[in-house]
């Protein structure tokens, strides 16, 4: 028993020492981070503004691609750099789905593992499940 106590005590001491080192390094990194942010404030602000503009333009482009798809039925635009992916969206009342799983003996859905349930529900045309297809715009990473 005393060997175990000594071993635990040694680990406890080592843990305390490592925590001190870790805390000191954390403080140092925090100060470096704050210094970096202060010294590079303008560049970081410009990066943030560019990200916001990028997100805005990308969202607008995606919206326009979906509209072009709806108008023409085409799924590829600009030599394949823009495209449409059709995804299925399924909505359902979880309590009704769970009740259905219990009644039908679908044990793999009893904890309502949504992935399993969606696979089953798509083929069964359950009255409380609606499935819609949504066009999602895709943009190639390499433009």
Notes on the protein architecture:
By secondary structure, the chain is an alpha+beta fold. Helices cover 64% and strands 17% of the residues. It has helices at residues 2-39, 41-72, 94-104, 114-124; strands at 76-77, 82-92, 129-139. The chain has a 3-stranded antiparallel beta sheet with strand order 1-2-3.
Key phrases:
143 residues, alpha+beta, flat, 4 helices, 17% strand
Draw up the topology in text.
Elements: H1 2-39, H2 41-72, E1 76-77, E2 82-92, H3 94-104, H4 114-124, E3 129-139
Antiparallel strand pairs: 1-2, 2-3
Write a short abstract of this structure.
The chain is α+β, with helices and mostly antiparallel strands and 143 residues long.
**Strand order in the largest sheet:** 1-2-3
Percent of residues in helices comes to: 55-70%
Estimated structural class: alpha+beta
Structural shape: flat
Number of strands: 3
Average pLDDT reading: 87
Order of helices and strands: HHEEHHE
Oligomer: single chain
Ends distance = 68 Å
pLDDT < 50 runs, ≥5 residues = none
Radius of gyration: 28 Å
Count of helix runs: 4
Q: Outline the biggest β-sheet.
A: 3 strands, antiparallel
Amount of beta strand: 15-25%
């Amino acid at each position: 028993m005393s060997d175990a106590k000594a071993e635990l005590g040694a680990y406890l001491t080592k843990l305390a020492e490592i925590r001190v080192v870790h805390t000191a390094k954390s403080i140092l990194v925090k100060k470096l981070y704050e210094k970096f942010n202060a010294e590079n404030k303008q560049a970081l602000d410009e990066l943030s503004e560019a990200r916001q503009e990028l997100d805005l333009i990308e969202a607008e482009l995606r919206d326009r691609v979906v509209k072009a798809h709806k108008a023409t039925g085409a799924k590829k635009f600009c030599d394949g750099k823009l495209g449409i992916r059709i995804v299925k969206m399924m909505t359902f009342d979880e309590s009704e789905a769970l009740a259905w799983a219990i009644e039908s003996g679908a044990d793999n859905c009893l904890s309502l593992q949504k992935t399993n349930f969606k696979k089953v529900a798509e083929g069964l045309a359950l009255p409380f499940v609606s499935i819609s297809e949504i066009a999602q715009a895709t943009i190639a990473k390499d433009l």
